[in-house]
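Re: Re: ligand-bound prediction request (bumping)

Still looking for help on this. To restate: I need the protein modeled with 2-phosphoglycolic acid bound, output as structure tokens. Inputs repeated here so nobody has to scroll up.
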Amino acid sequence: MARTKFVAGNWKMNTDKASAVRLAQHVAAGLPAGIEVGIAPPFVYLDAVAQAIASSAVLLGAQDAYFEKNGAFTGEISVEMLKDLNVKFVLTGHSERRHVLGESSAVIEKKAHAIYAAGLTLVHCVGEKLEQRDAGQTFSIVQQQLEELSDSMQDPQRLVIAYEPVWAIGTGRNATDAQAQEVHAYIRSAMAKLWNPDFADRVRIQYGGSMKPENAKGLLGQPDVDGGLIGGASLKAESFLAIAKAGV
Ligand code: PGA
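Reply:
Sorry for the wait, this slipped through. Here it is.
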């Protein structure tokens, strides 16, 4: 099954309003054909970025969303609010939310369900810490994190898994092509059991963790690597677009 690759930029807590708009404009202007490209700016710049990419095919993403529709949840942003701004995809389970901000698996599960149920594309991040890899627990950790998803999800186009080994995020140390492929193949086989083989075959699995122009071609050339979730290298249009082009 030919899956259209999807490369997304996770800007994290970076940029200011002017540089966010400029970066979005540059990405939109240089967009390659034959691949899906998305950017996830900080919440406060979503509206400005939405306008900057309005006439392009760049997909707007959000880095997080709360699971309740509205109400007394000080500081939180609902999925409905994101839809109002033309957001198309939302991340859940990013390692910084799991391990730096202490988000529990139970909360991640609720967020994932709310995002998918609202009709948006869910980019669900999974990945092991270095000590877990060293202890041979990579597959079981990834399996547990996949089980945060509901097996009633039916549209494989609206589910993306981002495999992001924690030891590779922001460290400059990416997984090798073979390490990425091994875990991506495991994820696809685990999804075939959780859903069914046809569903698993259609879900895109992104690699994330120090992906850059120099290693993108090798990683994106693996049979089960269907795109990338890019942090640091997405903050410059040139490097982000070079990664996207490597996936075409
Ligand atoms: P990185 O981040 O590309 O800076 O390693 C990836 C991510 O956290 O999504």
